[in-house]
Amino acid sequence: MTFSDTQQQGAAGDVPARLSHRQITTVMSGLVLSMFLGALDQTVVSSALRTIADDLHGLTAQAWVTTAYLITATIATPLYGKLSDIHGRRPVYLAAIALFTVGSLLCGCAGSIYELAAFRAVQGLGGGGLMSLAMTIAADVTTPRERGRYQGYFIAVFGGASIVGPLVGGAFAGRATLLGIDGWRWIFLINVPLAAAAAMTIVRVLRIPHRRVRHRLDYFGALALAVGLVPLLTVAEQGRTWGWSSPRALLAYAMGLVGLAVFVVVERRMGDAALLPPRLFRIRAFRLGVGLHFVVGIGMFGAMTTLPLYLQLIRGMSPMAAGLATLPTVAANLAVTLLVGRLIARTGRFKVHLVAGLGSFTAAMLVFATLRVGSPLWYAALGMALMGAGLGASMQTLTTLAQCEVPHGDMGAATASVNFFRSNGGTVGTTAFLSILFTTATGHIADRLAQARHHTAYRRLLAQPDNAHALAGVLRPGGGVGLEDSAFLHALDPGAALPFLEGYVASLRLVFLTGAAVVLVAFLIAAWRVPNLTLSDQ
Question: Start and end of every Major facilitator superfamily (MFS) profile domain (predicted)?
Answer without folding.
Answer: 27-534
